[in-house]
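Hi! If you just cloned this repository, the fastest way to understand the data is to look at a raw example. We've pasted two of them here, unedited. The first protein comes first, obviously.
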Amino acid sequence: MKRFVALTLATGFGSGCLKPAPGTWGSLAAIIAAYGVSAFLGPLAVILGIGFFTLAGVWSANAHEDLTGKKDAGEVVIDEWAGQWLAALPVALISPNTVWPWAAAFAFFRGFDILKPGPIGWLDRSLKGGVGVMADDLLAGIAAAACLYGVLYAIH
């Protein structure tokens, strides 16, 4: 049972098993889930989800590595789920009923996650294990959220 839970969480409920570009598929699944959670349960549930995915991500990424022997495997996208939900938080708080900010949250996060500018890339290269898997995506989510917040603030 532990193996099933760990692998299910680590792969973002299977979204990381889609090819090509599992990180993009994981992010897409995550933003759709964040939208649904925000619409039905509100922004507090998104905040709680970020916490859950962060803690579950460290555990499940470590477990995935132990079970498969693969370090930061491509199919592990729980980090994308945590980072994408973090990037979407300004939308859930400010403009949850408008579609384009959700798409912008996805685009900003993917940009920071793929390009890994500055400290995001440093975290990716420097930290190992579950914390290393999660850290760069969380920082990418923070950067994306900051950019998106600026856009939403300017518009509203």
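Ok, and the second one:
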Amino acid sequence: MKQRIISACVGLCVLVLVLAYFNTWVLNLAISVISVIAVWEVLDIAQRHRNRVLTVAALVFSVLLPFFRVGSVVRLLPIICFLFILTLLGVLLTKHEEMHVEQVAFMSFISLLVPFALTTVLFIRDSLGALLGFYYTVFALAAAWSADTGAYFAGLRFGKHKLSPKISPNKTVEGAIGGGIAALVCSLLLSYLFMVVATQLYGQAVTVNFWLVALASPVLTLLSIMGDLTASVIKRQYEVKDFGQIMPGHGGIMDRFDSVMLVMPAVYLLSLYCPLAVI
């Protein structure tokens, strides 16, 4: 537990530092680094990094995507994805005797899911501006991680009924409920603080739809659990406990961001179609 807390504190310090430069290229660089490490971790446990061409294509794609602005991504996305998939299929055709199609499919799935999910942060910032973008980004991270933390401690204290014993034996229904409550409280508190700070310090009259925040919170909790369980399925099928050891007590980068993978895109969609906060 001590090691877990220390790693969490170090991680939060790094997060605060990155968020301090939210509206600069520092955020792009941070997302790029996180993406490439997460993709490598998954490919590594699945032993999908043995083909150098596929590995380089996956990692280069992960590194470069966060540096495209929203408008550029919209225009270039078909070309980017086409070239990436073309590379994967080209390797499959030339290495068909030693490579199975499911290997290529797995690589394409991970290489597209992870960078796009994380790069949603940049879509939010570039679409909404620094102030609202900061709110939605922190809101998404807080929703995912508070649900994760709340579920961990609630499960330790009250856990009796297994949530998904064949996928993740330690997760319980009571833990999931505790995580949902923690996420709800954290989301409402964060939204209130943002509204106050934005108004008093930045002179921006921000309106937060607290009813919508309360309704969205349980959905985001379910998505965080789904992302966590999906990562657990991958680890269980490849018989590993963690994706890596870069964060002692937590595992790898993917272990820390698995619950964010579905929450961040969902928050981006909320910002577009059901805004939680407006100026």
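That's it. A detail worth noticing about the second one: The two ends are 41 Å apart (CA to CA).
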